[in-house]
Amino acid sequence: MKKAILILCVISIGFLMSCSNNAKDKINPKNVTTADVRDAKAKLLPAITFTKTNHDFGTINEGDIVEHNFTFTNTGNAPLVIINAKGSCGCTVSKWTKEPIAPGAKGDMLVRFNSNGKPNLQNKQVTITTNTEKGKEILKIKAMVTPKGKTAISGTPLSK
């Protein structure tokens, strides 16, 4: 019986010794290289940095069409692509370069505001969709629109 227990102990110890947790012995070097390349590429992202993200047109007259050019730089380390730029209403229109912007290069986003039918204080925004980590940027414009003068009420004159 003692012999059987001794044999069982030797087999158990041998089994436990063969199950070492040495991860180095279990890693395929090819997988490590693939993971390093993947991780390095994941860090390659564009970043968009505007010189300013808000513009105040001041006081304008209703019906005026005003525009402002927002300047930006790709401060990331991969080409920047602007996918879309959409205004908060149909009176705000954007124009931008459709080509990828290289790291370190500058670009422009033209924002035009048509104040026709938009009296008083106006706050609008343009949402920009990009291939950056954040994915979206917002530009804001503001204007105080002086309403068009009201026309006199027509009717029969009070005196001749």
Which structural traits does this protein have?
160 residues, alpha+beta, four-stranded antiparallel β-sheet, 3 helices
Q: How would the global form be characterised?
A: elongated
Roughly how many Å is the radius of gyration?
A: 33 Å
The major pleated sheet works out as: 4 strands, antiparallel
Number of strands: 8
**Main structural class:** alpha+beta
Number of DSSP helices?
3
What is the H/E order? Answer: HHHEEEEEEEE
Give the helix level as a range of percent: 10-25%
Distance between the termini: 135 Å
- Runs in which pLDDT lies below 50 for 5 or more consecutive residues are none
Strand order of the largest sheet: 1-3-6-5
Indicate the proportion of strand residues.
Answer: 35-45%
Average of pLDDT: 83
Question: How would you sum up this structure, described in words?
Answer:
This protein has 160 residues and is α+β, with helices and mostly antiparallel strands. 22% of the residues lie in helices and 39% in strands. The chain is built from three helices and eight strands; from the N terminus they run H-H-H-E-E-E-E-E-E-E-E.
